[in-house]
Amino acid sequence: MANGVATQHDFRSGVESEYRRRTVKSAALYQTALKALPGGDTRSVTYFAPYPLFMSWGAGCRLTDVDGNQYLDFLNNYSALIHGHAHPKITEAVSRQLAKGTIYATPLEIQIQLAELLRERAPSLEKIRFCNSGTEATMCAIRAAKAFTGRNKIVKMEGGYHGTHDAAQISVGPAPESAGPTDAPYSVPQSLGLFRGVVNDVVVAPFNNVEAVSRIINDNRSDLAGVIVEPVMGSAGIIPAQPEFLQFLREATRSCGALLILDEVVSFRLAYGGAQEIYSLRPDLTTLGKIIGGGFPVGAFGGRAEVMALFDPRQGSVHHSGTFNGNAITMTAGLASLELLTRSEITRINQLGERLRRGLREAFSSAGISGQVTGIGSLTGVHFTDAEVRDYRSSARMKTEMLSMLHLSLLNHDIFAAPRGDFYISTPMGEQDVETLLHAFRSALDEIKMSTVITT
C-alpha cells in the first residue's frame, strides 16, 4: 500500500509540475493577488491548489488564460453562461443600452418585459422581484415564507447550497462523521460568524428520503415556515431529486401550512419552464439567478401573488430594495439570453448532456475505476465512488484526492471544469466538443489508474 501511495504522490507531483510549467504568468499574478486579496481571490469557489488560473478573455465555449493556453470551457461560470462568452446578440444589446445609461433609480420597461417572459415560461411565478444574486433571492424567499406564515423555522436539505446568507450556510458540506445520523442530520454551521440562533431555526433533512423528511416536517410543523430545496442539488454533485420526493414535499408543506421554495438558480436551464416543468411541480415560491442575467449579476424570486404582495411598497410589510436591483444592463442581457434559449436549443444541449454522461460511464468502466455519473439534461457530475449517489452523504464518500488529480489533469488537457467534478453544456457546444472532453477524460483516468497501481 505504501508503494501505491508513493506512486499516487508521484503522479500528483508530475501533473502539478506540468500545470505549473504551463501557467507561469498565472502563478505570478496569484502571488501579486495575495498582497491585496485574502487568499488571492474574491470568490472562494475559484480557488484550487496549487493556485487558480487567471483568464484573459473568452469567446463562445473557449477561454484563454494569461499564458496563452486555450481551454474548452465546461464550467461556464458554474452554469451561469449558458450561451458561453461574449455572445454577439447579448453583447450587442448590452452595448446599445450602455450608451443610454445603466440605472436610473426608477422602474424600467425592460423589467416588465423580462418579468413577463419569466411568468410565461413558469406559470407558478405569478409575481416577481429582481435582485442581484441567487443568495439574495433565497434570502428574500425565506423571509417571505416566515413573514407570510408567521412561523420561524425552515427545513433545508443536507448538502444543499442556497447562497451565503446565514440561513443558507447550514450543513452545506459537513463532515459526515460529525453530522449526525443519516436520517436525522445535525444542523452544522458551514462558516464562523453566523448568528448563533440560526442553527436552531434551520432544520436539516436528508435529500431524496421521504420517510425521514416526513418525520422531520411533522416534528416541526407547528413552527415550520417553509421547505427550501434544489430540484437538482448543485454543489453536492449534480444530484437530481426523485420525482416522488418533490411531490411528497409539495403535499407535505401544503398540509401543514408551510411554503415550498424551489431553488432553480441552477436548474432553470433544464426546460423552457425550468425543472418545475419537468417535475410537474407548482411551488409556492421559486428562486432564480445565473442564466436569467445573461452573464451579469442577477437574482429573482417569485411565486404566489398573495405571498409576493408582502413586497408591495404600498403596504410596506417586507422592505426589499437594492441599488442595482433590476438594473438596465442586467435586464437587457437577461432578456436577450432567455430569447436565445429556445425549446429546441434546450433539447439540443440536454441531448449533448446525455451523450456526455454515457461516455463518462463508459470511460470509468473501460479504465476499471469505480465511478458514478450523475446529472440531468445539460448538467453532469462525476464521483469517484462505487456506491449509488442519491444524496449528500453518498456523494461525500467519494475519493477527493482522485477528483483533485482529475481536475489538474483535465486542465493540462485544455479542459476547464469545476474542481468538484461538475460539467455544464453551453449552447455554443456541439458533439465534437463533447468528444474532446471524453477523450481528455479517458486520458486522465488512464493516468490516474497508472498512479494507483501498487508496485512490489
Explain briefly what this protein structure is.
The chain has 456 residues and is an alpha/beta fold.
Secondary structure topology:
Elements: H1 2-22, H2 24-36, E1 55-59, E2 62-65, E3 70-73, H3 88-98, H4 109-121, E4 127-131, H5 134-149, E5 153-157, H6 198-201, E6 202-205, H7 210-220, E7 224-229, E8 232-233, E9 239-240, H8 243-256, E10 259-263, H9 275-278, E11 285-289, E12 299-303, H10 305-308, H11 328-340, H12 343-367, E13 372-376, E14 379-383, H13 392-396, H14 400-412, E15 415-416, E16 422-424, H15 431-451
Parallel strand pairs: 3-15, 5-6, 5-7, 7-10, 10-11
Antiparallel strand pairs: 1-2, 2-3, 4-12, 8-9, 11-12, 13-14, 14-16
Helix pairs in contact: 1-14, 1-15, 3-11, 4-11, 7-8, 12-15, 14-15
Question: What would your notes on this structure say?
Answer:
The chain has 456 residues and is α/β, with parallel strands linked by helices. The chain folds into 2 domains: 2-82 and 343-451, Alpha-Beta Complex (Aspartate Aminotransferase, domain 1), CATH 3.90.1150.10; 88-340, Aspartate Aminotransferase, domain 2 (3-Layer(aba) Sandwich), CATH 3.40.640. It contains 15 helices and 16 strands. The strands form 4 sheets. Strands 4-12-11-10-7-5-6 form a 7-stranded mixed sheet, sandwiched between helices. A 4-stranded mixed sheet has the order 1-2-3-15. A hairpin with a 2-residue loop joins strand 1 (55-59) and strand 2 (62-65). The N and C termini lie close together (9 Å). The mean pLDDT is 95.
